[in-house]
Amino acid sequence: MRLSARAGRTAAVLLGLWAVTVAFNFTKAVHIDDRAYLDIARHIARHPLHPMSGRLNLFGIDEPLHETNQPPLLFYVYAGVIRCLGESEPALHAVMALFSLVAIVAFHALARRLAPKRAVLLTAMFCLGPAFLPGQNLMTDVPVMALWLVFFTLLIPPEAGGLTVRRAALAAVIASAACLIKYVSLVLIPILLVALLLRRRRRAAWVVLIPVGVLAAWSACNVMEYGTAHLLSRPTTKLFASSLAVSCEEWLIGLGAVCPFSVAALPFLRRSRRARMMIAACALASCLSLAWGVLRMPEPIWYSLLRAAFVGSGALVCCATASCLVDALRPLADGEPPEARRDLAVVALWLVGAAAFVILLAPFMAVRHLLLAIPAILLVLGRYVLGEVRRGWRVSAVLGTVALGLLLAASDWRFADCYRASAPRIARRYAGDRTVWFVGHWGWQWYAEKAGMEPYYQSESILKPGDVLVVPSLVPRYGIMNDLPERLVKVEEVVVRPTPATLVRTMATWPRWSGYYAYHSGGLPWIVSRMPLEKFVVYVVREGGD
């Protein structure tokens, strides 16, 4: 009876945590890459047997769908919603809410296995933290995170010797689905094989052929549809990082920016045998970042200091996690039974695989690219660190993580909503016989088109005298014809004022364009700013030729 009451309280807490994620997700506007993925889903709803044969117009360039990065399994789910319920934003967000629920329950199951005394606490830090909560949108990251967590729940069973052939085969199916949502999941295939070998399940190694066969079948479909395999033609060139060192620094910046729980790593490392070396390495990384910002970058000192703080925080987390794993996995480790060490070896592979794929192959850095590594870090630190530091440090880690997650989630909700609210107002103000054009994509493009504006494409659009062109400041936008600026007369600036909820900013244009969804060239995942959230410049086309 006591166990049932405890299970009931735990279930109530998990549902409460899920309710918070739903509150930020369910009414959130179409945001960032949501619009592109919904366009893909529209095509699949019309042509389900030819998912990669449609076209997508981003940055004014009409490109085939098979040149985009992501495979389409999630978009088939969205296409099903569109076919049944139309382009209902609440219905689409309900799908994402289900993935969030799966992620929360699966993470809690892993935490109960690896850090049972702090399972609920770790789950709250995970789902209310700044890596997961603000990312409640329609992109692929939360769904693939949910599948990863289910995969590792299967590989790390609750009972000793519990990795049966059936569990391994189910994990292989989950890995297959994850690969067809996002190719970063390819790292799950070797992890599955190593996990089987670690547990002496060599006869079950055949299950690895399940995701291999699925990917082979998917590639064969690609060849029949448009002549080549999508997996092999995926672009992997670094767009913004010119070296491995820069990629590693950007990964540390992102990690430190969304891991306020790094404060608990400092007192833990001070008691470690490697304390001096690791703390010195963290301090050195932070100082080098600060010197680079002050001496080489045209930016205010507070920006350089914030970057240095993020680098130092990320380095602390990495050092603490690595120290814990090295001590637990060394051949003569004390206090860890063989089964627990095998579980931790799988977690170590999880962390290394997720980090290496992003650092080596991601075309740019974003917080959502780090999301897959955060649960592994939390599980390790929850097992070895949170219980070893004083209560004050532990409370600071938890409150800092949850507070930053809520602040960033509220700010990002408001940021997404500014395009949903502004597009119809601007369209109504300038409606009439003239055409209202716009540039830019993300959620702005989705709502501008719904409001009746026409997208401006440099190679196709012909603007007539009297037409209106709306240009946002923050949204990435494509080029304008060389002679067009001479024909544009600015008539208005529509400014979206900041609010207390947007003090911590997920995207900004100053000191440089960067933010939560893409940061590079010294940019940061988030900053504190009181600048306008967005500014739309409205032009009227004057006489001067077609």
Mean pLDDT: 87
Count of helical stretches? 19
Measured as a percent range, the helix fraction is 55-70%
Oligomer: single chain
Order of SSEs: HHEEHHHHHHHHHHHHHHHHEHEEEEEEEE
Order of strands across the widest beta sheet?
4-3-5-11-6
Instruction: Tell me, briefly, the overall form.
Output: globular
Using only C-alpha atoms, the radius of gyration works out to 24 Å
Query: How many strands in all?
Result: 11
Task: Give the strand content.
Answer: 5-15%
**Through-space gap between termini:** 80 Å
Largest sheet: 5 strands, mixed
Assign the structural class, choosing from mainly alpha, mainly beta, alpha/beta, alpha+beta, or little secondary structure: alpha+beta
Are there runs of 5+ residues with pLDDT below 50, and where?
A: 237-241
Task: Describe the structure in your own words.
- The chain is an alpha+beta fold and 546 residues long.
- Among the domains are: 140-234, no CATH class; 235-389, no CATH class; 411-541, no CATH class.
- It is built from 19 helices and eleven strands.
- The protein has helices spanning 2-25, 34-46, 73-85, 89-114, 119-127, 141-155, 165-179, 188-198, 209-226, 230-233, 244-257, 265-270, 275-296, 301-329, 338-361, 367-370, 374-384, 391-429, 442-450, and strands at residues 55-58, 61-64, 436-438, 454-455, 468-472, 488-496, 504-505, 507-508, 514-515, 527-528, 534-541.
- The relative contact order is 0.11.
- Residues 237-241 have low confidence and may be disordered.
